[in-house]
Amino acid sequence: MKVSLCKSLLIFGLLFIVFSINRSYGQDSLSQQSQMLDVKLQLLDSKLELLDAKIKLWEAKPKELDVKLNELNNKINSMDFDPQKVTQKLKDIDSLLKVKQESARNEDKQIKVIQEVEPEFSPDYKSAIMMDPVRLFEGTFHISYEKILNSRFSVNLGVMATYSTKQGISDYFFKNQSFAYLDAASNSYNSFEGQVISGGGLIVQFRDYLLANHPNKPKAPIGLYAAPQLMYRNITITGNYKEMEVVEGVNEMVDKKIIQHLNIFAGGAILGLKVPVLKVLAVDLFAGGNIKLSKYTNESGFTKNKGWFNIDFSGVSPVAGIAIGILK
To answer: Count of CB atoms within 10 A of residue 13's CB?
Structure first.
């Protein structure tokens, strides 16, 4: 009995211990769960408060915007102008600015076009006065006057004055002349020593400026030209020769003076180019050919067998030279 009583007491004690432990544990878990629930409820309350605050802000913002819009409308209404008219004026100003900009661009384009297309300044010359410096080396002063007929044609008249001796710049030309006279008695030529070549002459040209009818090309008296020409010169050659004469019964060589009159006719054509210099001066380069006929007054026909460098040459001869002068 005692043993069974002890066992039952022991079993009852163990059960009591276990039950007390379980009860305490259950109480602890319930208290923790209640605390967690309180925390959650507090969080929910704070969330609700935040939501209420947001809703109030959302409700307040449209009201503030309405107030501000009303203020702006009142200010606009209080102003002394029509916004539509101001807008129209601004549009008009923009259109005027656009028109001005377009006109400025067009003017710039026109200026550029004018600068590109503008031809070079070409003076309107009416005449030219030229001098041939090459003829100075034969003792001849040659000056010419050119008169413009129209943009293509002109007439050129040249005057020559000759006085050539062994002295001065005509020395080389004079020394290379071969002087001879016709002896009527023997019908043969006798040479003599020349002293002076003098005389005058005229040259007439009708010039055709070949490029004058082309656009942007120079007009007469400037540019490339072709010209027929006629020349006449009257030359006097003075010299002396020695002749055997009987003086007081003695044969002596006596100096005789001789004067020859020479007429020169020539006709031909030249091709030339006249270039302006500094818009006032001009340089004229020309070349061509002539048929030249020379005749002494005491002879019946034209001269023969003369070198083409001689002033009394008859035949075909070249013509070339340079002239300088002024444009008017």
So the answer is: 10
Give the integer Cα–Cα distance in Å for 145 and 128: 6
The C-alpha atoms of residue 28 and residue 73 are separated, in whole angstroms, by 68
- Region 127-327: CATH code: 2.40.160
CA 237 from chain center: how many Å? 55
Domain residue limits, the chain:
127-327
Bridge-based pairing of strands 188-191 and 153-164 is unpaired
Checking if the pLDDT of 8 tops 50, the result is yes
Q: Tokens 């002033």: give the residue.
A: 311
Report whether 328 contacts 128 (CB < 8 A).
yes
For the cut 90, the answer to whether the pLDDT of residue 33 exceeds it is no
**Contact call for residues 322 and 144 (beta carbons, < 8 A):** no
Contact between 261 and 303 under an 8 Å Cβ cutoff? The reply is no
Residues 6 or more apart whose Cβ sits within 8 Å of residue 159: 142, 143, 144, 200, 201, 202
Model pTM score: 0.60
| Spatial distance between the Cα atoms of 207 and 213, rounded to a whole number of angstroms | 14
